[in-house]
Amino acid sequence: MDKLKATVALICCGLSGWAQLDDSPQEIRTERAIETIGDYGQFAPTAVALATTLIKKDEEGFWQLAKSASANLTATWIVKYAMDKPRPEGRTDGHAFPSGHTSFAFQGASFLQRRYGWKYGIPAYAVASFVGFSRIEGLNDRHDAWDVLAGALVGIGSTYLFTTPYSREHFELSFSSGGEGYMIGFQFKF
User: Fold this and answer.
1) Phi-psi group of 156: left, alpha or beta (phi > 0 → left; psi -120 to 50 → alpha; rest → beta)
2) Burial (0-12, 13-18, 19+ Cβ within 10 Å), 56
3) Per-residue pLDDT of the chain (190 residues; tens, 9 = 90+)
4) Which H/E stretch holds residue 163?
5) Quick count: other Cβ atoms within 10 Å of Cβ 87?
6) 94 burial class (0-12, 13-18, 19+ CB within 10 angstroms)?
7) Rounded to whole angstroms, how far apart are CA atoms 156 and 103?
8) Can you name the residues that pair with 187 across neighbouring β-strands?
9) Cis omega before residue 98 (within 30°)?
10) 8 Å CB contact between 87 and 143
């Protein structure tokens, strides 16, 4: 009968979202590591995006990154103060929705994907996804899934407002001749 009670209690705790009966020292270390990696990882996609624009001498991309990062941070903080949602761990600072760490990470990742393609985007989205995971699963459980999803949407949306795909050549000049005529062509890529 005690095994049945323990099984029912475990199932109820799992269904209610509280699968842990107590936090072991190992679990605390793991959650602290996840949270710390997420704290630093939020900067990685945007740092790589900045380095990529500088290495490629992509001045247009640099300004697009600056505009999308500024729009992202502004939108995130406006929504945080407008929503005034308490954090899942109980803190009532009202800054849970959306996740700022997640929005910043996804803004950098989506910039890399939108500007330079999926070759850059896939690893950046993997890092951004881990950052989102770290906000839910870290030691302090700072956010829930809705906070993280909203952060990702704000980050991606701010990028898509300002960022265009990278094109090394913005214009193309062509010339052809045949028979009795000549043709000059000019193509500009936006």
Assistant:
1) alpha
2) middle
3) 454 444 444 444 443 344 444 567 777 787 777 777 777 888 889 888 989 999 989 888 899 889 999 998 898 888 877 887 766 676 666 677 787 888 889 999 999 998 888 898 899 989 888 888 888 776 666 677 778 888 888 888 899 888 878 876 555 666 666 777 766 666 655 5
4) none
5) 18
6) middle
7) 8
8) 172
9) yes
10) yes
**What residues contact residue 18 under an 8 Å CB cut-off, 6+ apart?**
none
Determine the Cα–Cα distance for residues 104 and 69; give it in Å rounded to an integer: 7
What is the distance between the alpha carbons of residues 163 and 38, in angstroms, rounded to a whole number? 25
CA distance 74 to 89: 25
Question: What is the pTM (predicted TM-score) of this model?
Answer: 0.70
- Is-contact 135 148, C-beta < 8 A? yes
| Region of 141 on the Ramachandran plot (φ > 0 left; ψ -120 to 50 alpha; else beta) | left
Contacting residues for 101 by C-beta, under 8 A, at least 6 apart: 38, 39, 42, 131, 132, 134, 135, 151
Residue 164, amino acid? T
Handedness of CA 151, 136, 140, 12 (dihedral sign): positive
DSSP 125: H
